[in-house]
Structures are given as structure tokens and as C-alpha cells.
Amino acid sequence: MLTQIYEVGTPDEARSISLIGVDHIGILVGEGRFPREQSVIAAQRITAAICRPAKFSALFLGSDRAFIERSVQQLKPAILHLGAAPDLLSPQDLAALRSRVPPHILIMRSVPVIGDESIAIARSYDGIADFLLLDSHRVADRQIGALGITHDWSISRRIVEQVRIPVILAGGLGPDNVAEALRIVRPAGVDSKTRTDRGGSHAKDLDRVRRFHEAAKAAGLSDPNRQA
Asked: Does the residue 226 lie in any domain?
């Protein structure tokens, strides 16, 4: 059972969260077009504090492929996470991007869970991405996720059953509901941002992170039928 925490914003957070045992440390990277984006230089400082075996996941909410390519060359993340809305970054765009980044970098694609149409969106990236991240979405948004609300987990379960690549479940997950989400969806991993933040801020609450991680790992061990 993989666990990942976004948006890690300081070196101290990166070090502490990786020492808890979280698998993927997510840093939002950009040029300031979305709130809380880290510059490439700031992201380099944060990722330098990540302790192995935790992996650095670089999240881009924009769809500027040239900027993404340049940033990946500088940051060298283990995972390139693409979070732009579906109409801004197609499967063909993702395939083109894959051909231009180092082959050892895994690609994660966010998929908005908004209805039955989400299943077709997810399947369109199957075989191109290495991971899918299923997240809540407002149709008018240019990016997917960071809403702090859950979505219809029955749709996410159907996606898990119909794609061949690992699925990470996101969207309003925290220590108190992650076990139930895992029981229903049976993904390969789970993601948290808003519900592991400190109240009234975007700084991480390390106690919530620890409880989220421990609850997810325990639930994963108890379900031998989850997605591999």
C-alpha cells in the first residue's frame, strides 16, 4: 500500500514526512500561476531533504510542456505527476512528453472523478502513464484536485477494475476515512493533502500525516485483494 503526501512546502516537512515512512513526497512546482507553487530552485531545496526510500514526486498543474520538460531535467524527480485538466493535457500530449523525459522517471496522471465519463478518461491513459491518481474535480477548474472533498468512490472502484496500471486514490482523504476508502476502492495507494494540513493553513500537521500513513498501511495489510 503506497502512501503519498502533497503539498510539502519546506525542507523540514520533507525530512519529517519521509522519516514517518511515507512513500511519495509531493511538491507542487510551477511559475506562480497556481497558488502555493514552488519555483524550481525552492523545490530543489525541499527535495534535497527527502530521506530515502521516500521518492520525490513533482506535481505540475499547468500544461506548458516546455516548462515541464525543463523543470524535470533540473529536478530529476522519481515521479512526474501531471495534474492539468483533461482538455489541457491529452493522452497524446502525455505520450509526447514521455518521449522527452528520462526513461527512468515514472509518470502519474491525475484523472477527475466526476461521473461515468471518468472511466473513459482513465482508460485513455492506460498504457501511457505508470500511475493514475483519481481525484475530486470542479469542471471549471484548470487543474484536478486540492478541493479537500471526497467523490463517488464507486466510480473509482470501477476504474481500478478496468485499468492495468496502479491507481492512487485521492480527494478528501485523511486519517479518519482512509481505511473505509481503501475497503471500497481497493487501489494501490492513497494520497492526502488538505486533510493532513494544519487547521487554517497549508502547513503539514505531522501527527495527522503519521495517523494517515499508519491507517493506510494497516488497512492495506488487511486486504489481500487490493490492486497490486
From this structure: no
Q: Within a domain: residue 194?
A: yes
Specify the 3-state DSSP secondary structure of 79.
strand
User: HEC profile for 177-224?
Assistant: CHHHHHHHHCCCEEEECHHHECCCCCCECHHHHHHHHHHHHHHHHCCC
Please tell me whether residue 169 adopts helix, strand or coil conformation: strand
Tell me which residues of the chain have a pLDDT lower than 70: 224-225, 228
Is 227 domain-assigned? no
Residue 68: which domain range? 2-221
Cell 503526501 sits at which residue? 5
Cα–Cα distances in Å, from 227 out to 102, 183, 197, 198, 211?
A: 27, 11, 27, 31, 22
Helices H / strands E in the chain, number of each: 8, 8
pLDDT, one tens digit per residue, over 47-105 is: 999 999 999 999 999 999 999 999 999 999 999 999 999 999 999 999 999 999 999 99
Question: What is the structure's pLDDT at 140?
Answer: 81
Please state the domain count of the chain: 1
